[in-house]
Write a structure and sequence with these properties.
Order of helices and strands: HHH
Helix content: 55-70%
Mean pLDDT: 90
Low-confidence stretches: none
Structural class: mainly alpha
Length: 93
């Protein structure tokens, strides 16, 4: 497991009302995970087992990205800016 566990629900440390959740932060957290998992999947130095695990976790990650996109506090402009920064960060590596 790199980022996500399959079928396991983790209890949150605290409960925050749905309407007060920061959808931009939630989306960008999972988008960073998405980039990491794609890196593992596409890296020629990754083992076949690592690539298979990354592919399984990408499915979970994409589902979470879609969930955050539907949140009423989702702001496409802020997400685009955050994604741009993440892409710059990954290019530096």
């Amino acid at each position: 497991m790199f980022v996500y566990s399959e079928g396991k629900q983790e209890k949150p440390a605290y409960f925050q009302p749905y309407s007060k959740m920061n959808a931009v932060k939630g989306y960008l957290t999972h988008y960073h995970n998405f980039m990491f998992l794609r890196f593992i999947r596409d890296n020629k130095l990754s083992t076949d087992a690592e690539k298979r695990q990354a592919i399984r976790e990408l499915v979970i990650c994409e589902r979470k990205l879609t969930w955050w996109q539907r949140h009423p506090n989702y702001d496409q402009v802020a997400v685009s800016e955050g994604k741009r920064k993440l892409h710059e960060h990954w290019r530096e590596k």
